[in-house]
Amino acid sequence: MLFVLNTFSAPFTGTHPSSRCAWQQPRLLAKLAPCAMVTHSKFPSAGMSHPLDTSLRLKTFSSKSEYQLVVNAVRKLQESGFYWSTVTGGQANLLLSSEPIGTFLIRDSSDQRHFFTLSVKTESGTKNLRIQCEGGSFSLQSDPHSSQPVPRFDCVLKLVHHYMPLPEQQPGEASHPKRAYYIYSGGEKIPLVLSRPLSSSVSTLQHLCRKTVNGHLDSYEKRTQLPAPIKDFLDQYDAPF
Known about the structure:
Keywords: Growth regulation, Phosphoprotein, SH2 domain, Signal transduction inhibitor, Ubl conjugation pathway. The structure is a single chain. With about 240 residues, the chain is α/β, with parallel strands linked by helices. It is built from seven helices and eight strands, in the order βαααββββαβββααα. It has helices at about 30, 65-80, 90-95, 155-165, 205-215, 220-225, 230-235, and strands at about 1-5, 105-110, 115-120, 125-135, 135-140, 180-185, 190, 195. It has a five-stranded mixed beta sheet. It has a three-stranded mixed beta sheet with strand order 1-6-7, with no helix packed on it. A hairpin with a 7-residue loop joins strand 2 (about 105-110) and strand 3 (about 115-120).
């Protein structure tokens, strides 16, 4: 099955959002929801003291349900360890420049129409894919000329997981259908590969254990058999990566 997605360029501006405007899009959730918003950057402060134009970084919510959808997405992204928050497209390009193909990160979108952007290292360099939020779900921005429906998810982590390689087939298991995804960029189709996230922070031992457990709990029945405190902890972050 073939899917074609759209991408966009992100020139490096040499600026970084200041802390005084860090509540804007979607960090404004820090003012509205009981979750701590984390800003992280591996870049030195020198040369990055000028705030980004916040008029380009304000995304309003279309409904209460969309607000809650984004709140839940941010909470899980903060647990993920690969949510880079206010990092710009240019900074994402620098972060991924020396990484192997397939390395990716999630950051806030600088486009006022979107909340998040997926930046990924491809065979043609770093590409940025906007994550659309509409109709109560998330999806990658697709090629407008493509007639194929784009997969949609109620969680950004589920979206990322969908585009990652399928696990190796175990003996006796039914074969997995092959999936091929391509990025449409500048008139060319580039294979989309999401192999490993770029960590923005050091994960706790508890989180590493949680990811391992999530990777082995492949059925709802197994989760329901766990003690309530453990199940609640796993539900806070239910991805294996």
